[in-house]
Amino acid sequence: MHIADFTLSRLPRIEFGSGVVARLPSIANQYGLYALLVTGAGSLKHSPFWANLTTGLKAQGISWHHLTIASEPSPEMVDEAVRILRTEPIDVVIGIGGGSALDAAKAIAGLLKPGNSVMDHLEGVGPELAYAGPATPFIAVPTTAGTGSEATRNAVLSRQGAGGFKKSFRDEKLMAEVALVDPDLLATCPPAIIAANGMDAFTQLLESYVSSRASPLTDSLAWGGMKAARDGLLALYADAGDAEARARMAYAALVSGITLAQAGLGSVHGLAAPLGAFFPIPHGAACGTLVAAATRINIEALRAREPAHPALEKYAQVGRLLSRQGKLERDASHAALIDTLEAWTREFKLPSLAHYGVQHADIPRIVADSRGSSMKTNPLRLDDGEIAAILTARI
After folding, report:
1. Across the chain, what does the average pLDDT equal?
2. CA–CA gap between residue 39 and residue 60 (Å, rounded)
């Protein structure tokens, strides 16, 4: 096996397993006695975990300020939080929730000490100044199995509307110091959230596996994550009380964050950015509804223009994995992969793009704004017509 050159970026200390969230207060105490808790809009406060957390923090002598994130974070929200909280003696930022809460916490932790606007650093927007830090220590506790933000160095921020954008504030100094991944926290996720987030995690694994920056290291992680998702996603969707399914999907999401941070993504995430900026479509729903069509278009383009490209065999490998038919020929494996992804899309009742207001007339501006960092690591460059065909298939 040829081992290509690769770079491994910094990762958090990862603690994975049932019940590891109980260690959060003692871990937080290692950084100081005043914490900023960044959580979702409210479900956490109504769960048994909240009482256990606050009791544990008090026992450790930790006081805190609580900030809730009701939707995908915007630059304005981050800047306002930093403005209000910068004078507080915050020792550690603890993000608990889905990708929105973790991304907001990550960005705020990065700017509490420097105090400048996040707009200074967003990719593709404004001056794109280098981030110097220092960041306030950040602890990530995911409560959904989706974005893998607990293991990435970027915070995704959105501004919705006609001139909207969805861009990353990215630097290794933003990486969490500790990621506590407790599958038990998935037990209260509703099926629709499990489906959308799970499809996002699987898409991240698939796209990083066929990425132009993939390496043997990321391939091995992505492969294990896809196998875990194959065995866990449908089971968790059917029953959030299935402890083994929770563990598999928590692992798949964590690994998807590691592999995307190291290898990059592809056309699905390239399109998810403008879709999330221009329309009220949640990120997981955008990825889930597009992945089957995008995979089909990628395979067709590779066959037509680069038939010897290694991504074609990788797609075939994933088709065999998902179908559990290890001896399929390559073309049949490609068909099995697309069939499985389409079946998942139907099973999870993922809405069409039209459900969120996307019309055929919107396609040119979505395509024009799709060529961000994610699209650059797609296994080949898609032309505008091919990108448009992905959207057309899901309107």
Report:
1. 95
2. 20
Residue 346 confidence (pLDDT) above 90: yes
Q: Is the pLDDT of residue 44 over 90?
A: no
Question: CB neighbours of 65 closer than 8 A, spacing ≥ 6?
Answer: 34, 35, 36, 37, 85, 88, 90
* H runs (alpha helix) in 186-282: 191-210, 216-238, 243-263, 267-278
Q: Are 158 and 276 in contact (CB under 8 A)?
A: yes
What distance in Å separates the CA atoms of residue 368 and residue 391, rounded to the nearest whole number? 13
Torsion angle defined by CA atoms of residues 58, 62, 64 and 70, in that order, rounded to the nearest 10 degrees = -70
| 359, burial (CB in 10 Å: exposed 0-12, middle 13-18, buried 19+) | exposed
Q: Is omega for the bond preceding 134 within 30 degrees of 0, making it cis? A: yes
> How confident is the model over 299-322, as a mean pLDDT?
98
Q: Going by C-beta distance under 8 Å and a sequence separation of 6 or more, which residues neighbour residue 166?
A: 156, 157, 158, 159, 272, 273, 274, 276, 277
Q: What is the pLDDT of residues 116-133, one digit of tens each?
A: 999 999 998 889 999 999
Q: Are 208 and 255 in contact (CB under 8 A)?
A: no
Alpha carbon distance 82, 105 (integer Å): 11
CA separation, residue 358 to residues 243, 272, 274, 395 (Å): 37, 12, 11, 7
